[in-house]
Write a structure and sequence with these properties.
Aminopeptidase, globular, 2 domains, 28% helix, four-stranded antiparallel sheet, Alpha-Beta Plaits, alpha+beta
Amino acid sequence: MGTVVEALELARRLVRLDTRGGGERPAADLVAGVLHDAGFDVVQQEPEPGRANVVARTGPPGSWVPVTFTGHLDTVPADPSGWSFDPLSGDVRGGRLLGRGGSDMKAGVACQVEAAVRAAREGTDPVQLVFTFGEETGCDGAARLDADALAPTGLLVVAEPTGNRTVLGHKGTLWLRATARGVSAHGSRPELGRNALVALAAAATRVAAHRDWPVSPTHGPVTVNIGTFHAGVQPNLVPDSAEMRIDVRTVPGFGSAEAAARIAGLCGAEIEIERLVDLPGVATDPSEPGMTDVLETLEPGSSARSPQYATYFTDASVLAARLGGPDVVVFGPGDPEQAHVTDETCSVANIEAAARAFRALLLRKR
């Protein structure tokens, strides 16, 4: 086995690689190289130029593995003009790692790599690591993973930002495109046309004003956000088309079918509705065999409280089915409130603690 790369050092190197909205290949090369040097069997897949997934493992090829670690290598965009420091800084200041992806979720990826390498040096059970591109835009990389490269697993650990608290799943996600069609006309004779912008704006107002969304006792309320709205070319032209995109977070008992039907009803029959992203929610039962041990290893005392579920989605929506239906735990060093914000940072103390917790999880049966 090669030299262990400390999680903080690796996280800094990852943050300095620009994977904002794409271009994940350099980050994939970095983690793949570290794992290869440590003796892991590593497969890289690049279904699009510059965008790559990494699957690494120890143990016999194709055999069942007790634990799979996963994280994504992409980040959301960051406009440097709005930041007080370089989004690709990777510096450490005041006990915090600075830069886009520090919390969401390059620090988590780095912690998983360090823990897996350290545990492998001590002869742990086989472990699998899956790092993906394009999670932020709907789990694109996970969806394009070659299934033959994945081994079934008993536990999937997603290092999304939780502040080192155990989370047992998350809501589902449905992204919709709503389109209104109209008839173009000169802006001085609007009565000759049919304004698609006005029709869609009215639909948007009805959706935004609706309050009767279900609330799950475990996952919380269904939420709806109108994220984009596009229409028109210039003021003196009646727009003949308009489009908005809607983000719905679904919960047990109110899935994507129910959500799409409710949105369609609010928009009205004249508005076309198309599904863009449809990801199921995740819910692990804390009473599953072995889960108490997993929870206590990662966060002592967490098995005694009510299970928590995240509002965001993760690659577990796609990977769980491909890995044979494992239990899922979301646990990572990033601060949830730092995800996607300007001047993103991550606690160095959390990074160090998460790396220790991941290693303890891999070694717990020894």
